[in-house]
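Tutorial handout. Part one gives the primary structure; part two gives the three-dimensional structure as C-alpha cells.
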Amino acid sequence: MIRINKFPVGLRIGLALSVLAGVIAVWHSQSQPIATAQSPTQAAPTLTIGKLTFRDLNKNGKLDVYEDSRQTPQARAKDLVSQMTLEEKAGAMMHGTLRAGGQMGSIGAGGSYDLEANRKAIMEGKVNSFITRLQAAPRVLAEENNKLQKLAEASRLGIPLTISTDPRHHFQYVLGASAGGNGFSQWPETLGFGALADAKLMQRFGDIARQEYRAVGIHLALSPQADLGTEPRWSRITGTFGEDAQLVKRMVQAYIVGFQNGATGINKDSVITVVKHWVGYGAQPEGFDGHSAYGKYNVFPKNNFAYHIIPFTGAFAANVAGVMPTYPIPRDVTLNGKKLEQVGAGFSKHLLTDELRGRYKFNGVIVSDWGITNDCTEPCANGLPPGQPPSPAYIGMPWGVENLPRAERFIKGVNAGLDQFGGTEDSRILVEAVKAGKLTEARLAESAYRIMLQKFQQGLFENPYVDPAQAESIAGNAAFVKEALAAQSRSLVLLENKNKALPLSGKIKKLYLYKINPQVARDYGFTVVEKPEDADLALIRAVAPFELLHPNYFFGARQHEGDLGFKDGNADYEAIKAASAKVPTVVTIYLDRPAILSNVKDKVAALLGNFGVSDAALFDVLTGKVAPQGHLPFELPSSMDEVKAQAEDTPYDTKTPLYKFGYGLMYERAAISRR
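Part two.
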C-alpha cells in the first residue's frame, strides 16, 4: 500500500517519526538509506510503502524508480535522466557559483547566500551543481546549505544540489585556488604532506576533511592537485605535493581514498574528489600562471610531458570520481604519436576522450576549470590601466579558442569530452546548440547520467540536509584540531641547526619575536622582550620572497611571481639582518615557493622551512615537544641565475641547489635524503 503524506508540516514530521524505527530495522537488510529531511519546510511530500518511507520528489503521487532507494544508483540515474527535459540536462552540465550577499557576492564571497539569485539559477537555469565560497562558521554554513537544498527540492524533479569547494583546511587563501577555513581543522598545505611523505597520514587527513565537509553539507572537493612543481617560480606550487612524480602519485592516491571513503568509488559517506589539472600544469614559462593571458601556454623543453602524467595514475588507481582539465595550451607537445591541438585541455578531444576516457578508462565526471567559455576582453588580455583595480568581471580563460564565438566554445568542449562547465550557469547555450543540430540531446544525456549517478551514490536523493548542531560538533572538534596541530609541527623541515640550537635549552628564557604572537611564547614559559639585544634568542617568521609583476591583472594582483631571493629592503630580510646582528636567531620561512636562502643561512642559528604552521605548533617544535620530520618536497635553489637556467618541465634540475630535494635534518641526527 502506498500512502501519500500531504498533511500539515508538523503532522508529516510526526508520521515520519512514527515509522522511523521500522525504517531503521530494514536499513541493513535492504541497504536502504533513511528517507528523511532536516527541513521543517520540506517541499516534496513523502510516500509510505509498508514500513518504508520515500520522498516523492516529482510530486506525482507515485513511486518512480529514481525515488526508490531500493533500486541501484545506475537504474535510478537512468530513470531520472529519461524524465529530464533538454533544459534540465543542459542545466546539470553547469557547475555554477553560489551567490552571496555583499560587495563580492557575485563570486560567492560573503557570510550568507543570496537566496533569490540562487533560486533563479536553480529554477530557471536548472543548475544543480555549485561551488560555495561562503565564509561562515560550520553551523551557519550548514544552515545556509540547507536553505539551498529546500530550493532545489521544490524544483520539478526535486534534484538535490551537489555543493563543491576549493580546499578549506590549510593556511593560504587565494581566490580561485583555496578558500578560508572558518572553523575547520587547520592542516599544513599539501606541500607539508609532501614533506612528510606519509601516505597513512595523508589518508587520515582526507578522512577527517571528508567528515567535516559532509557535516556542513559540502559534497565535492575541487582537489587534489596532481600537478608537479617543476618550475620554482610558479605561483601555485603551494597547492601541490612537490616536484617528484612518484611522491605526488602516492600522496594523490591516499588523499582520494580518504576523501572518497575508500578506493572502490563513491558511496553514501564519500566526498567526491576532482583531481586536477589534467595535464602538464606546473610547467609554466617563468612560472606565470595559466589563470592569466600571459601564462596561457605551458612548455616542455626537455620533452617531459609524460612525466607530468604519472601522478594522475595514482588518482585512477583510487577510482577518482572527477577530473578537471588544465587551463594552459601545451605548446608543441606530441603524445602517443599525435601532436596535441593548440588549445587548452578543456577543448582537447585527444586529452579528454582519447587519453582520459580511452587509454586511462576514466568513467567519472570531467568538469572544466572555471571561466574557459568566457570572452577574454582587453582588460583580460592586457590588464587594466595602472591605478584601476582589477575586477572579476573581466575573468576569462578561453585559451586557444579566443576567436570562436562563445557558443562554439561550449560545443567544442562537449565534443572534446567535457561533462560540466565550471563557473557558469548559462545552460541556454547548450539547449540552443541541440535545437540547431550542433549537439545531440543524447550526448547531453550521457553527461547528465554521470552527474546524477554520483548524487545517487552519495545518498543525496534520500537526504541532502545536514544537522547544524552536528556540523558544529564535528567540524573543527578538539580531536581533529589536535591531529592537525601535530601534522603542522611534524611537517617542518629543519634546514640548519648550528651547535644544536634546537630544541631550545633551558638556558633560553627571553625571546625577541617578529610576526609571532607574544602570548603563545608566554604560554610556553618564555619572557618576551622588545629589543633583540635584550633577548637570549630572536625568533622570526618570514615568507618566501615574491614580486607582483602583473598587478593590473585580476589573478596577477593576487599571485606570487618572480624573484625567489631575499633582497635588501624586504621587510622580513631586514628583520633577520637586524636581529642576527645582536643575538642568535632562529628563522622559520613559509615556503609557498622554493625560496633562495643563500644569504639567510649564514645569519641564523637554526632555520626551519614550513608549509603552514601555527605559533603553537611552531613552539612545540622549538621546545622539543614534537620533532620536525619533514624533508623538502622540492629543491631550494642557490641563485636566480640557476632558476632561469633550469627546465620548466623537469624536477630538481638546478645545477648546484642550496638544499636538495628530500633534504631535512633531524634533532640529534645527521641530514638524510629520500633521493
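Part three, for discussion. Residues 211 and 232 are 34 Å apart (CA to CA). The longest helix spans residues 199-216.
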